[in-house]
Amino acid sequence: MSILTSLKPNFQIAFPRLASGNYVHFLVVRHSQSFPIFQTDGVLNTARTQAGLDASNEKSKQSISRLVMFKRKQVTPERLTGRELLRSLNLTSATAGMDNFCEYNGENSCKKCPDCILYGFAIGDSGSERSKVYSDSAFSLSPYELSHRSFTFNAPFEGGTMSEKGEMRSSINEQDHILPEVSFPTVETLRDSTWEGFIYILGNLLRTRRYGAQESRTGTMTNHIVGIALCDGEIFSNLHFTQALYDSLDGDTARPISNLSAEATMVAEKLLNQEPVRKRQVIFGQQLDELLAEVNSLYQDEERLRHTLTTLYEQTKTYSETYGATAKQETRRKTSRREE
Fold first, then answer.
1. Distance between CA atoms of 114 and 117, rounded to whole angstroms?
2. DSSP for 165-233, written as a single string
3. What is the sign of the dihedral through the CA atoms of 247, 250, 251 and 257?
4. If we measure between CA atoms, which residue out of 138, 143, 216 comes closest to residue 179?
């Protein structure tokens, strides 16, 4: 039996109405591959935090500035990746008037597709659904001073020069960018999901490649999954994970990603053992490699992928019609049929 199939008994066969304490934690090291821009109001987002957690170590106790990747900067690109996939399989549509039309973050959200049910929505009087994907702001492992650089850009004429017909163009812009190979240790959590929902969220993590502003030209990142933990409660925060990893590296954050990932795995295992939760299953090392290979294989197989996500769509639709925002509409429809 494959590792992916063996996980099925850990998941529910339908989405429950109430929280039932089934959490899947994806332990991730988000690693920049180009020059992402995570900013608001024109400047990179930063926060002042303690470097590590060791109160007996002066380097760990010092306060440093870290880059911040706010929660929406993480989840939004992953949602859009998932929604693109659902449209490509004709499970949802971007065409208004179609039965499966779903508008992102708008009044015309369908309120029943995997994206609406798993990531949640809130549409005034039309209803709301609490997200089943928990995320939070991520902090750079390395200090702000070592993780960014300001670049100056110009906008040349079509001929490729800054002057044309004696006219000099002065359109020059300067902007801060995050450097390549900056890491953001992260815990992303999925609550009370089915097995198919687990595959969908994990796929979104693995398939999303671009984050931040100007993502059509920069912002490439890779999500290195270092562990998956199935527990009955929430675990440590992104900042705690980052600080513990900083201590484990003794502040040497410029190591190769293979080294960082291996260290992050050991830190995550240690932190998990300190949490007051029951662990149904934890997946690290070779078992994790096999699981990720199986998920990659499933996403490469058109038939299996379509079957998995079609099943997920039926699950989220049933949940919505039973407990969710479309339950009232469904009740009215059935009442109307009986009256006819």
1. 5
2. TTEEP--EEEEEEEPTT-EEEEEEEEES-BHHHHHHHHHHHHH--B-STTTTTS-BEEEEEEEEEEESS
3. negative
4. 143
For tokens 């949802």, what's the residue? Answer: 92
- Alpha carbons 28 and 188: distance in angstroms, whole number: 8
**Six-digit token string for 4:** 């992916």
pLDDT in tens, 8-37: 999 999 999 999 999 999 999 999 999 998
The DSSP bridge partners found for residue 69 are 138
Question: Looking at residue 195, what is its pLDDT?
Answer: 98
Instruction: Tell me the β-bridge partners of 189.
Output: 25, 134
Residue 172 scores a pLDDT above 70: no
**Can you tell me the distance from the alpha carbon of 110 to that of 121, in angstroms, rounded to the nearest whole number?**
10
pLDDT, mean over the chain: 91
**CA 203, CA 280: separation in Å to the nearest integer?**
22
**Tokens representing residue 312 in the block:** 């997920």
Using DSSP bridges, classify how beta strands 279-283 and 172-178 pair: parallel, antiparallel or unpaired. Answer: unpaired
What residues pair up with 322 in beta bridges, in sequence order? none
* Strand positions, DSSP E, the chain: 23-32, 39-40, 43-44, 46-50, 63-69, 121-122, 128-129, 133-134, 138-143, 148-154, 163-164, 167-168, 172-178, 183-191, 221-231, 279-283
- Residue whose entry in the numeric block shows the structure tokens 């294989």: 297
**The token pair that represents 132 in the structure block:** 């089943």
Q: Encode pLDDT of 274-313 as tens digits.
A: 999 999 999 999 999 999 999 999 999 999 999 999 999 9
H runs (alpha helix) in 41-120: 58-61, 71-88, 114-119
Residue 255, burial from CB neighbour count under 10 angstroms (0-12, 13-18, 19+): middle
> Which residues, other chains included, contact 89 with Cβ-Cβ below 8 Å and sequence gap of 6+?
305, 306, 309, 310
The per-residue pLDDT for range 98-130, each reduced to its tens digit, is 989 999 988 889 999 999 999 998 877 778 899
Q: Which residue has the tokens 């925060």?
A: 237
